[in-house]
Amino acid sequence: MKITLSLPILLSLAATAVLARELQKKPAVAAPVQPPAVVPVEPEPVRHTLADCHLHLVDFLQRTDGAAAALKAMTASGVTDAVVSGMPVVKQWSEGEPQQPQYYLEDDARCYWYSATDMLVAREIQSLPEADRKHFHPIICGFNGADRNAVDHVRRMIEWNPGFWQGIGEVMTRHDDLSALTYGDTARANNESLHRVYELAAELDLPVFVHSNASSVWKREPIYLHEFEEAVSQHPKTKFVWCHAGISRRVDVPVLTQEIERMLATYPNLSVDISWVLFDTYLVKDGKPVATWLALFEKFPTRFIIGSDKVGHFHDYAPVMQRYYVLLDAMKPETAKRIGHDNMLAVLPKQGAVLKAAAASEVRHAVPVLTK
Asked: Is the pLDDT of residue 263 over 60?
């Protein structure tokens, strides 16, 4: 039988043959691309001695470069001391997500509370030589602030590691997208669960570092400020640190400096942490310090502290801390020394927390008895 092929069919067969030869020249599946190696960022020459009030030793997967790596980065950057915490939540890797998220905003998967984070911090710090441990000031964060059991976790951590913990936080309450992504109720700075934590903190002279947004991403008025203010006003014996001055991503409060000035004048138990996005969105514009903030720093030179807010990894630690130079250089020398270093140490207790005998007994009785 004779088969006659039309011109379109002949052209299609020719194209297929050419494509087949090209495919034979290269692998059918591209080799996986390796991520580029993390290159450490070299620090500037040290011009100011600093203290870091806000360093997460682990990330949103509870991973870390390690306390030794953090200390190396601190030393190279002129940072003598750091308040260190874990991360109270873990970013879930959901079944429907093809790639493991590294940060809470990378996909729509939820976050869940993770109390073991405090033990990870304790293990890291306690693994260091004793001479190195003194540079770290660990604080407790592994609890849900909307849970009335939160204070029991704080007590348990102190009972298990007496004399080790020097504060509580970062306590997560209102926090941009993280609040919406985290399982359970959103904690408010003035809810009953946290009042019990604040009372224990006052008893043990522990500062409490609270993340409590002053507003939402849709409002420009400080609609949530009263929640944090009520906590500060109702617990005058508790030392509060307001993380990021109540600001997160996309939170814009035009009256923020006026409100901070009012609160600092009203509540002597309040300090303000000026780390994270506050720097670029409020403190510095076009490479120059904003005059209203400089005036606020000079009016309350003992009430502001700086931090890196680095999360588990420290290759770019130096530029994050040394960017404060542009602010510190514009202050009076004594103000720069206080805000850059001394104020943070002044907030901390003279020694780590130790429970009274009765409280320690309550914690032990709350631990389930294991049976065969």
From this structure: yes
Write the pLDDT tens digit of every residue in 293-309: 999 999 999 999 999 99
Tell me the pLDDT tens digit for each residue of 303-350.
Answer: 999 999 999 999 999 999 999 999 999 999 999 999 999 999 999 999
232 and 263 Cβ atoms separated by less than 8 Å: yes
Q: Report, at the CATH architecture level, how domain 50-365 is classified.
A: Alpha-Beta Barrel (3.20)
With CA atoms as reference, report the closest residue to 355 among 185, 156, 184.
156
126, 127, 133, 136: CA torsion to nearest 10: -70
Q: What is the pTM of this model?
A: 0.84
- Taking alpha carbons only, the member of 344, 321, 322, 341 closest to residue 333 is 341
Rounded to the nearest 5°, which phi and psi values hold at 170? Answer: -70, 115
CA 52 to chain centre: 12
Residue type, 45: P
**Residue 26: pLDDT over 80:** no
Q: Domain map of the chain by residue range?
A: 50-365
Angle between helix axes 357-366 and 150-160 (nearest 10 degrees) is: 110
**Structure tokens of 34?**
């390796």
Dist. CA 325–CA 303, nearest whole Å: 18
Nearest to residue 104, comparing CAs of 36, 211, 179, 188? Answer: 179
For the CA atoms of the chain, what is the radius of gyration? 26
